[in-house]
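Complex 710.
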Amino acid sequence: MRILLVEDDQTVRTFIAKGLSEAGHLVEQAENGKEGLALATNEKFDVVILDRMLPGGVDGIHILETLRGQGNVTPVLLLSALADVDEKVAGLKAGGDDYVTKPFSFSELQARIEALVRRNRNEAQPQTRLMVGDLEIDLLARGVKRAGQKIDLQPREFRLLEFLMRHAGQVVTRTMLLEGVWDYHFDPQTNVIDVHVSRLRQKIDKPFGRPLVHTIRNAGYMLQE
Amino acid sequence: MSLPDASAPVSPSPGFFNLRSVSLRFALVYGSLFICSTVLFFSFIWWGTAGLLEHRVELAISADSRALFNVWEESGPPGLTMMIDDRLEQDVDDNTLYLLVNKDGKWIAGNLAEWPRQITRNHHWFNLPVQRAYTQDLAKVRAYGLPDGYRLLIGRDISGRTLLRKMLTDTLLWAWIMIALLAIGGGWLVRRLFQHVIHTISRTTLAITHGDMSQRMPVHGTDDELDAVSKAINEMLDRISRLMDGVRQVSNAIAHDMRTPVTRARAQLEYAALHAKGEAALRAAIEQAVGNLDNVTAICEALLRIAQIESGARRSAFVLFDLIPALQDVCELYEAVAEEHGLTFTQSLPASLPFFGDRAMFQQAVANLLDNAIKFSPPRGTVTLSAEIVTLEPPLDGRSRLLRLSVADEGIGMNDADMARATERFFRAEQARSTPGSGLGLALVQAIVQLHEGQLQLAPNTPGLITCLEVPLPDEENFPTEVIA
Ligand SMILES: Nc1ncnc2c1ncn2[C@@H]1O[C@H](COP(=O)(O)OP(=O)(O)OP(=O)(O)O)[C@@H](O)[C@H]1O
Ligand SMILES: [Mg+2]
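Predicted structure with adenosine-5'-triphosphate bound:
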């Protein structure tokens, strides 16, 4: 993937760029808004990572608005030290696709970038059924089957599984689950997500021997064959 | 008489005639107003009495003259002479004056011997001194010209009335002088009172600006405006010192509680750098240090959040919504956690509960309470979430309905002293030190509840703790029906 990274802090920029390159992406770096805007408008990227506050007059929101004004729909992930809910809303309103507050863990950022790109591809064809290995869910009938055997799930468990299936093969962080499945935008203090995932595992993994839901250390979960 | 300076008798003090002094202006305005109003008032009295008396005498003379003219027209000088004689005869009090003379000034009729020299003009009022028996009297007279050079003088004795008028004028004048003195004294008093009040306020506020926050305005318990001002100032001071305490508390807390994870992280990293054997040990140390730093971030975020909520800025995000689904979402999230801890989770909620507030925040508050209940309960206890609408009779502060939401657990509970401090930032009871947490959960709940104009209360449950939120609800008629439905 070709990724544009606009971030003024040298340490943070190198940290992200190195990580993403190691993950096999091609990273273009810009250290100020002007440079970033020029790159973003003239070249084609799969994802743009934008720091919200940049020196030199052209800040992240400004770049974002300019891009969207030109009809550019490249997924944009905003980085910001402003954790405020209102700031988040403002960022998303300006056309951002996701918002990560500083400080963040690299795995969180990476998971979100991959989710963004995936979402962008998936939006093309709406799906009615999802399959991973021998696990199959029917989004219309709300039915779940593994190895031909019907599994009963609570509505929320179904949504959790659906989310994991949609991001199959990808790391999904706890915050992403909290936001995507529960629509919560606050810190639940305890590891509530772990408890719910472990319940889901009881139903879809335990009776079948071979686990599909994997725990990724220091990052989150991944549904994979 | 010119207006006396209302401030004149006040003992001299520095800057006394400084017109920028509010108290002096106040006193001057008071004095001038007082004096002007008495001048007006007394003039009115004077006109209403003395002035009126005089006017009536003039009216009587004019009426008399018209009657005598008629007689003259009907029967000439002889008739008029007879008429005058008649009138004088009937006048027992002897307070009328008549004189009719011919064109040579010769006496024809009347009780005056000759035409007085002062009376030179006709149709003009004169005050004429008259010698009567042994007294010198005063009469009001008017001369009228008649055909053929005859002249008629008509008058009334006004010495009694003059006396009355003089008395009245004197009395009013004296009264006015006394009132003016009172005005001056009053002005002085007003000024002193005013100065007193202002000085108390400025002394107190000055002491406070110099750092003595313990100072308060004296309240005399008289429930007057001054007390109201004092109370308002005191309330303001209370709030300021609460805020300052908060700031102090937070900065102390930052100094202590944030240092802990930072110190740990630092120690772990330094130790690893010096002593770690092999990559695995290094990685483990770094991971732990990152965990501790994440903890610092979480604390910062929570503190910021509390501060932001306390500033009241989030009230703009208030909406009407049904609280029940929102609560059920939170319950659903925590029910699994409770079960995991071997706890029974029960809830008693009404079918619907229209609520006005910030949905996400309120969920967060309830989540924090559930989190505590689960965290501080040993296995096999029960955690209960209940919500109900309480109708207040009579209404309190114009609110007649309250939401009472409580979370009860059967855990370790708290003693009274700890309960009183539970909502302080970073407060954690002694028994809680071994559980994870930073002591900001209840502080955040408190801030959220206060944003919704409600209260947070802690009460013992035997065993365990009940945390209870009471939040006023808007009146039923204000709800759009679709929210209730
Ligand atoms: N349900 C409860 N039972 C017993 N003690 C409690 C309960 N709730 C709160 N406390 C006490 O009040 C203290 C403050 O609670 P608070 O929620 O603010 O902090 P915390 O839970 O320790 O940390 P955090 O919520 O930040 O993770 C707790 O440390 C604990 O001592
Ligand atoms: Mg807590």
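Chain B has three domains: 16-210, 225-310, 315-484.
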